[in-house]
Amino acid sequence: MVSVWRKSSYSGPNDNCVEVALGPVVGVRDTKARHAGQLTVSARAWRSVLDHASSLSVSANAGTA
Known about the structure:
alpha+beta
């Protein structure tokens, strides 16, 4: 079970984001629909998601200089 939920500091005061709780099991939930539950994945799977998202960001910015 996850316990400490955090949202990105870039989210600002609005609830238009997702929250993540890190640990051996990572929880992800929508701040607008916390009552709807959460997605849980292994820490290894979450790391894979972050690595993939990071590689997309790097390739998207490759042409800007």
